[in-house]
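FAQ: What does the model actually see?

It sees only this:
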Amino acid sequence: MNVHSFFSVGLVFKSTNMSSNSKSNNKREALVKATIQLVNNNGFHATPMSKIAKMAGVSPGTIYLYFENKQNLVNQVYIEVKRSFTRFAFKDYKESTSIQGDFEKIWKNIARFKLNEVEQAMFLSQCDNTPMIDEPSRKEGLKHLSPLLELWKRGQEEGLIQPVSPYLLYAFSIYPISFLLQQRERFEIKPENINEAYEMAWNSIKI
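And it is asked to produce this:
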């Protein structure tokens, strides 16, 4: 085999391998999207693996090449969506000397995510209210919120934020966004409503 032939074979092998990886990634992505959509429409318990595979356009056995079981699938999708959510929440965040200004930037990013990425936002809301997500996955998801948790801690140390559990801070300032956005069919959300909601969120946690 001459040098030209050797490199030609190498390029064909590389191209074939990349194509195979691309197809594999596409199948996994289709399974993730199908899981999110079916859970949002039917809930966790009415979303069997067979329905997920059918919606994703793969054979039922294929799903087990990517996920061990339904529990593993749900946990992995939860962590992936949580990662996407927090990337958006902190995408332009840089710690400053203003606790309130930093909180406003993060809070409004979260609101924009929930407005623009409705399917993912709905899925996270479902995950907040189900025992399907195991504790290690919840802890992993919580790690992605560390900039917000550190901001609250800094605010507490400076005497600006109420000295309570971060779970309470989240419940009163962040979680209500999900409820507000779920009411969009009954309540048109305008820019001024977002500003009003932010002010109420800040007032609920400040001293």
